[in-house]
């Protein structure tokens, strides 16, 4: 069955870095657009970044542009989000979601989600 599992979150000081990972199983990640989303307390889930099949298109939201890099390892069926220069506004639960119709795109009823990984930026 299709499964996505996020990891790599944690507590980090402002200005620090984290690399989040999403392990996919039950489907071939390389064949689909896939994205990272986040949800802060009391706020809606919003898109952070996405990547298209064959890395043809990459989208980084304005909130993290210049500080984040999305990538994948097709051999390992893994998706990553490298985030640098973290600040308090980056505090959220981060989810990977797939498939997306394209990148960028909102999720659809077919999009599957992981359980999320908590990122907390605090001094």
How would you describe this structure in keywords?
single chain; mainly beta; globular; 123 residues; 11 strands; 0% helix
Give an overview of the whole structure.
- This protein has no helices and eleven strands.
- The chain has strands at 3-7, 10-12, 18-25, 33-39, 46-51, 58-60, 68-73, 78-83, 92-100, 112-113, 117-121.
- Strands 2, 4, 5, 6, 9, 10 and 11 form a seven-stranded mixed β-sheet that branches.
- Strand 5 and strand 6 (58-60) form a beta hairpin.
- The chain is globular and about 40 Å long.
Short description:
The chain is built from no helices and eleven strands.
The biggest beta sheet is recorded as: 7 strands, mixed
Q: Which structural category do the helix and sheet elements fall into?
A: mainly beta
What is the number of helical segments per DSSP (H or I, 4+ residues)?
A: 0
User: Helix coverage percent of residues?
Assistant: under 10%
Rounded to the nearest angstrom, the distance between the terminal CA atoms is 40 Å
Q: Order of SSEs, N→C? A: EEEEEEEEEEE
- Rounded radius of gyration (Å): 13 Å
Specify the overall morphology. globular
Average residue pLDDT: 96
The fraction of residues in strands falls at: over 45%
Q: pLDDT under 50 segments (min length 5)? A: none
Spell out the blueprint of helices and strands:
Blueprint (H helix, E strand, L loop, with lengths): L2 E5 L2 E3 L5 E8 L7 E7 L6 E6 L6 E3 L7 E6 L4 E6 L8 E9 L11 E2 L3 E5 L2
Parallel strand pairs: 2-11
Antiparallel strand pairs: 1-3, 3-8, 4-5, 4-9, 5-6, 7-8, 9-10, 9-11
């Amino acid at each position: 069955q299709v499964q996505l599992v996020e990891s790599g979150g944690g507590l980090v000081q402002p200005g620090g870095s984290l690399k989040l990972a999403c392990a996919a199983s039950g489907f071939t990640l390389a064949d689909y657009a896939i994205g990272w989303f986040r949800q802060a307390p009391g706020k809606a889930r919003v898109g952070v970044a996405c990547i298209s099949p064959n890395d043809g298109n990459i989208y980084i939201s304005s909130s993290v542009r210049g500080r984040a890099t999305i990538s994948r390892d097709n051999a390992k069926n893994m998706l990553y989000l490298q985030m640098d220069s973290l600040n308090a506004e980056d505090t959220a639960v981060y989810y990977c979601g797939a498939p997306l119709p394209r990148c960028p795109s909102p999720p659809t009823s077919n999009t599957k989600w992981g359980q999320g990984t908590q990122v907390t930026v605090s001094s």
